[in-house]
Design goal:
The complex is a heterodimer of chains A (287) and B (298). Chain A is an all-alpha fold. Chain A has 13 helices and no strands. Chain A has 2 domains: 42 residues; 210 residues, MetI-like fold. The relative contact order of chain A is 0.13. The chains are: A mainly alpha (287), B mainly alpha (298). The interface between A and B is large, with 93 and 91 residues.
């Protein structure tokens, strides 16, 4: 190596070290930004009602106060929690089944209106749900479902459909055609093809959709707030408002509610986080 | 076409119809019909409960066009939209680039950076109401710490700070989503491309700026479209955090519509606002698509 080359090499090495330094500083900075609100939430949920103002936010609770959590549970927290689990589970199963069914012909059959239907469904992705709020409120009343948990089923399933069909169609297109053809020779029709071959091969796409839509259904507010009115039918996102109405000044207690409602999603995410990126790579990004 | 082909085409059409029917029926009932119904209701005066709907023609629409509150909310939406795109997407790209460059050992960063996206907008609204509180909030506490005497930082009680506080919280919430999106984008780039670039004497930096980021182009477009539509219909957090206040300073189209319809029970005019919102969002999205396509052609 001659001299000039060596200087060049050293220079680029030093530059890249500086670049890494800056990058790591920024990475740590964003780590703090992402984490501080969570720390604030968790630490302060272990205080007594008036300790927050008198002790200041930088002091650890003194003494640690654990009664906020039992208090919430006593006030019906798991009712809200259970209803949320129920509606999200039902909506997810139904939504995944329906969108897999719809994505199958769109990705693997040739028929006349295919392009048109696909374009139509993709266009539905940009319909803001708020525009449909008043008519769906009217429809729910007319169906006698007002203030019933399952009034949410139709809207939850439907508003997740366009995006899910779009992603699953892209996903199913990547399954080689030969798999199906050989099955057809063996005497499979379209229906058994779908259940025996395509559906099992789409598992990773389906699980990503389950994660994304599960998060957004778990957190959904506008439909729930419009269609549910009594505390005995409300879901978890509405529980926050309900608790606030009953304990308006008790900030630590409210923070404990927040901790308990965010926890399930965080635990599930840590378990399934690998699926998240893989599924995105398979579908969403191609758009 | 012989008869066998015809029979096959027919059976395919039947199978396709059966598979597509549930999705199409639901979309018609819960999306297409409601949008049409919103436009129909927009020409009535109606309180949402009583059976007498009074036909008022275009008078709601006339009110809407001259409604300064609606246009102020629309402008707030536009400000939120611009800053969302300027903050969330570059930040998301930056985080994704860091993760892509450092590989699996930075996985813990990825997990923690994603946390904010897992909280519901309602929970975030409550949490940041406490964090941004004038008295006892985190920002006031930090300011007090650095200045040595008691300072009250009032972020949500004044304009225009309130709107920018909301924009900041939105960036906190949604940056992780774009981060994962761009990680997936980087993942889809063929690794042989990087190997070839290295053989040709590319440094990591050259590869990043001259190959990888340009290849993300189409993904940028989709990400921007999502951010754009998302911020024009934003609702949950603002509705729970400021209720559109102070003095309408954070009112958005969706919160304005919601309050008209479900607090004041003015559903005729509420529908009109919703329909106007639908038209504006569609126009902006189409315009954006058009501008972006033209740019790509150069």
């Amino acid at each position: 190596m001659n001299n000039a080359q060596e200087i060049d090499y050293r220079k680029s090495k030093r530059n890249s070290r500086i670049a890494w330094g800056v990058a790591i500083f920024f990475a740590l900075f964003w780590l703090v930004v992402a984490l501080v609100p969570f720390v604030f939430m968790i630490v302060n949920s272990f205080r007594k009602q008036f300790d927050m103002l008198s002790q200041g936010v930088f002091h650890f609770p003194d003494p640690w106060y654990f009664d906020n959590y039992p208090n919430i549970v006593k006030n019906g927290f798991f009712g809200y929690f259970g209803r949320s689990v129920l509606i999200v589970a039902c909506s997810l199963v139904l939504m995944l089944a329906i969108s897999a069914c719809a994505a199958y012909p769109l990705s693997r059959m040739t028929f006349k209106a295919r392009g048109l239907i696909y374009a139509g469904i993709v266009a539905m992705m940009s319909i803001p749900m708020h525009v449909t709020l008043i008519p769906i409120f009217k429809m729910t009343n007319a169906m006698g479902l007002r203030d019933k948990l399952f009034a949410l089923l139709g809207p939850y399933v439907t508003f997740a459909l366009p995006m899910s069909i779009f992603i699953l169609t892209a996903f199913m297109m990547t399954i080689p055609k030969e798999v199906e053809e050989s099955a057809e020779i063996d005497g499979c029709n379209k229906f058994s093809n779908f259940f025996r071959i395509i559906l099992p091969l789409s598992k990773s796409g389906l699980s990503t959709l389950a994660i994304y839509n599960g998060v957004s259904m778990w957190n959904e507010f506008a439909f729930a707030n419009t269609l549910l009115t009594s505390p005995s039918s409300k879901t978890l996102p509405l529980a926050l408002g309900q608790f606030k109405g009953e304990h308006s000044a008790d900030m630590p207690l409210m923070l404990a509610v927040l901790v308990l409602s965010a926890l399930p999603m965080i635990i599930l995410f840590i378990i399934f986080q690998d699926k998240l990126v893989k599924g995105m790579m398979a579908g969403a990004v191609k758009g | 076409m012989n008869s066998l082909q015809k029979a096959k085409a027919k059976s395919t059409a039947i199978a396709a119809t059966v598979f597509l029917a549930p999705a199409l029926i639901l979309i018609c009932v819960y999306m297409i019909y409601p949008v049409i119904d919103t436009f129909v209701t927009s020409v009535y005066k109606w309180n949402g409960i009583s059976s007498d709907k009074i036909f008022v023609g275009m008078s709601n629409w006339n009110t809407l066009i001259h409604d300064s509150k609606f246009w102020a909310s629309f402008m707030h939406n536009v400000v939120v939209m611009i800053f969302s795109i300027l903050l969330q997407i570059p930040l998301g790209l930056l985080l994704a680039t860091f993760l892509d460059a450092s590989g699996r050992k930075a996985n813990i960063f990825k997990i923690i950076w994603f946390f904010p996206y897992l909280m519901s907008s309602v929970a975030i609204a409550f949490l940041f109401n406490y964090i941004l509180a004038t008295n006892g909030g985190l920002f006031s506490a930090i300011a007090t710490l650095f200045s040595g005497h008691k300072v009250n930082v009032d972020l949500l009680g004044r304009n225009p700070q309130a709107l920018f506080a909301i924009i900041g919280v939105m960036a906190w919430q949604f940056t992780p989503f774009y981060m994962v999106y761009f990680i997936a984008g980087y993942g889809n780039i063929d690794t042989s491309l990087y190997e070839a670039a290295v053989i040709d004497g590319c440094t990591r930096k050259d590869y990043l700026f001259k190959i990888a980021i340009p290849l993300l182009g189409p993904i940028f477009k989709t990400a921007c479209t999502m951010s754009l539509i998302g911020s024009l219909k934003y609702f949950d957090m603002v509705f729970n955090m400021t209720q559109g206040g102070p003095a309408g300073g954070t009112e958005l189209m969706a919160t304005y519509m919601y309050k008209l319809s479900f607090s004041q029970f003015n559903m005729g005019y509420g529908s009109c606002v919703a329909a106007g919102m639908f038209i504006l969002i569609t126009l902006i999205a189409l315009l954006f698509q058009k501008v972006f396509v033209v740019k790509e052609d150069y």
